[in-house]
Amino acid sequence: MLNRFFIALREYGYGAQRSLPGLDGLRAICIVFVLVSHLAGTAHFPLPHNLSTSRLGEFGVRVFFVISGFLITSILLAELRRKDDISLGRFYFRRTLRLLPAAYFFIFVIAILAMQHVMSLERWDLTFAATYTMNYHPVSGWPVGHLWSLAIEEQFYILWPAILLTLGALRSSRFLIGLLFLAPLLRLASPYVAPAFSFLIWSDALATGCLLALLRENLAANVHYSRLLASRWFVLVPTVAMIANFVPSAKLNWLVCGTVMNLAIAISVDWAMRNSHTAVGRFLNWPAISFLGVFSYSCYLWQQLFLNRESTSPYCAFPLNLFLAIAAALASYLVVEAPILRLRAVFERTRDRRRSFANTTPSPSPSSPV
């Protein structure tokens, strides 16, 4: 019965979409990392806020980026192979309806609360949030500070579909590999030019996911890679990613560990999709865990409002703050995110029917009256 409940919640927004095994389960783990990171230091929560808990949240965001790059590129690549083209208009239309309504509803609520002096914002916070440029606004208020990651993701996707369409799959792979080598050097230089490189220093996480989508078929045919995925010691791959995340040296982290994490995460993502039959795979695809992954976008948006370690409000004390964050996110999912996704599906079905009708309707012969 409980499984049916979570399946119904998932299908309310996505229907039969998001069918790749394991990915929503990985998203669920990511959002838990973010929640624990932001809960740390709030009243009554057992963990303090420190470098380790902060990096746990960053690691969750990094996994989000790799998964996102893989999924978006898989969709674009399938269209490119099927049609020898990518409809940029359709891509941006889908991204707009997927992300902007929920995000702008959140920003609107934050603006109302700020006007009522319920919370405080820094100057220009709302402008940077609404324009998806929060990563270029280093002094931001807590309620909207987490939108930096959404900004980086959307800036990447403004460019990536056109790059893939222009260069094709092979040259795009080379371009991404070049970015993986360039990004660590930019991270080393970033303290001297911050926030100018804020987009580029995180773009290699997204690029690694994109590269996985482009190379996955070839990797499957590689004997050594297949042995790695099948090895009982594969657990060392995600372990290496976690260890790399907590290396204390900032320069080593920027130059080496970021790339190690990205690659290990990408391989782990591939493993999760290919091993849904295992105990770990069944856990990742368990309806409750899978729905948490589906629900992670709304959860990521709204948790910031209540998981504020600087606030003395009882609403920001554990466990009430966690309950309120999940409740607000669920309301947003049910009232804003899911209905818009259902509406998008209606638009796309209507468009596809019209195109199908136009393609099957015979053209009049030259002698036929018009």
Describe this structure in words.
- This protein has 370 residues and is mainly alpha-helical.
- It has a domain of 246 residues.
- It contains 15 helices and no strands.
- Helix 3 packs across helix 11, helix 4 runs antiparallel to helix 15 and helix 10 runs antiparallel to helix 11.
- It is globular.
- The relative contact order is 0.15.
- The C terminus is likely disordered.
Helix content: over 70%
Q: Give the rounded overall mean pLDDT.
A: 92
What Rg is obtained from the alpha carbons, in whole angstroms? 22 Å
What is the strand content?
under 5%
- Decide which structural class fits the backbone: mainly alpha
Brief rundown of the structure:
With 370 residues, the chain is mainly alpha-helical. It has a domain at 21-30 and 49-284.
Protein topology:
Layout: H1 2-14, H2 23-39, H3 51-83, H4 88-115, H5 125-130, H6 142-145, H7 148-193, H8 200-220, H9 223-230, H10 236-245, H11 250-274, H12 279-284, H13 287-294, H14 296-306, H15 320-360
